[in-house]
Amino acid sequence: MKVYLDNNATTMVAPEVVEAMQPFFTELYGNPSSMHSFGGQVKPYVDRAREQVAELLGATTYEVIFTAGGSESNNMAIRGALEVVGADKRHIVTSRVEHPAVGGVFQHLGKMGYRMTELPVHPDGTLDMDAFGASLTPDTALVSIMWANNETGVVFPIEELAQRTKERGILLHVDAVQAVGKLPIDMEKTPVDMLSISGHKFHAPKGIGALYIRRGTRLAPLIIGGHQEWGKRAGTENVPGIVGLGAAAEQALEHLDELDEVEALRDRLEEGLLSRCADVRVNGKNRVKNTLNASFEYIEGESILLMMDDVGIAASSGSACASGSLEPSHVLRAMGVPFTAVHGSIRFSLSRYTTAEEIDYTLEQVPPIVERLRSISPFVQSSAS
After folding, report:
1. Which of 47, 60, 215, 351 has the fewest CB atoms within 10 Å, i.e. the most exposed one?
2. Catalytic residue among 18, 85, 311, 321, which?
3. What's the pLDDT score for residue 384?
4. Beta carbons within 8 Å of 380's beta carbon, 6+ residues apart
5. Strand, helix or coil at 124?
């Protein structure tokens, strides 16, 4: 059996999305900016996709800009907003548990002279709101915070953060890559200034995303050139990807009410691992419904993953963008996960395509793997002595 439990890394493109995209590779291949009929017949599909994404976000169509994915959206939001603010304000705020697509940008900006505050989190992964309040100053130009953590699934209180930054006149960017399709989002009711999404996290293809920019928010373009996206993002539109993103957005909105079923399977996996394996801890609370981050003490997560892969189960030890690194997760270290557990952490992330049979198979296979690795672990032997 093949079991895919790494949906926070990427998802299968939904069959309905593939079907919607297909004509734009072979029949409707015109450039939507062209004046002739080949282009003219394509533009309505781009417009419809923008409507679909806007509906998913509770936004208006002119607030949605298509990008190549989450990393571009994050860069465009953070760097574009700061370019407009200029030298008047040089303080920026983020958290210690951000994805590298935000954390890396902040490190770059720090080298350029910006003063950076990285907010701590509590041991359960939730944001330290007292530290957030204390971090805001008259010099603060921008706050960039994720909505849901990619490793633990912990959800941050974006509505409260948005209200507090709005009161202070501070721009707020939200990395919602791991939230879209897993949480209801309504930008009309949540005063976020900019919000990033990535299609391949909710059953659209890779290489397509979007940036929500609230009407009235000034932003300098990251990619300069043509007039596309109202001059905010130059480059010929990726029409198949845009159509796929729109179709996936529509599907995500339709399937939001099925998240309780995903949560039930996640909890079944969680309870099964806790009952069948000793010395296991679950990292994080108040999580999106598809994510389980579990630490198996005294053994290496990479070894667990390799042995799981041998029996057809795919999961992750954290962010796919940090794979290959021997360093323990910066997210779990920020949460204070002990040394005996931080290296043995596995992220299981489900989708609406995950089945009960797959979860049961995983529960059959993982406990013997853990037991075998602990039998040869020097950490277990040293702790016993």
Report:
1. 215
2. 321
3. 52
4. 298, 299, 374
5. coil
Active site residue 277: no
Distance CA 282, CA 274 (A): 9
The pTM assigned to this predicted structure is 0.95
Length of the chain: 385
Across-strand partners of 289? none
Between CA 317 and CA 322 the distance in angstroms is 9
Closest CA to 136 of 167, 111, 114: 167
Name 108's Cβ contacts closer than 8 Å, sequence gap at least 6: none
Distances in Å between the Cα of 305 and the Cα atoms of 112, 201, 315, 350, 369 are 39, 21, 7, 16, 10
- Residue 113 backbone dihedrals phi, psi, to 5 degrees: 105, 0
Question: pLDDT tens for residues 257-315?
Answer: 999 999 999 999 999 999 999 999 999 999 999 999 999 999 999 999 999 999 999 99
Q: What's the order of all strands across the beta sheet hosting 291-296?
A: 280-282, 291-296, 345-349
Backbone angles phi, psi at 348, to 5 degrees: -105, 125
Q: Do residues 337 and 295 lie in contact, with contact meaning Cβ atoms separated by under 8 Å?
A: yes
Please state, in angstroms and rounded to a whole number, the distance separating the CA atoms of residues 168 and 132. Answer: 13
Handedness of CA 295, 299, 305, 310 (dihedral sign): negative
Main-chain dihedrals φ then ψ at residue 125, nearest 5 degrees: 90, -5
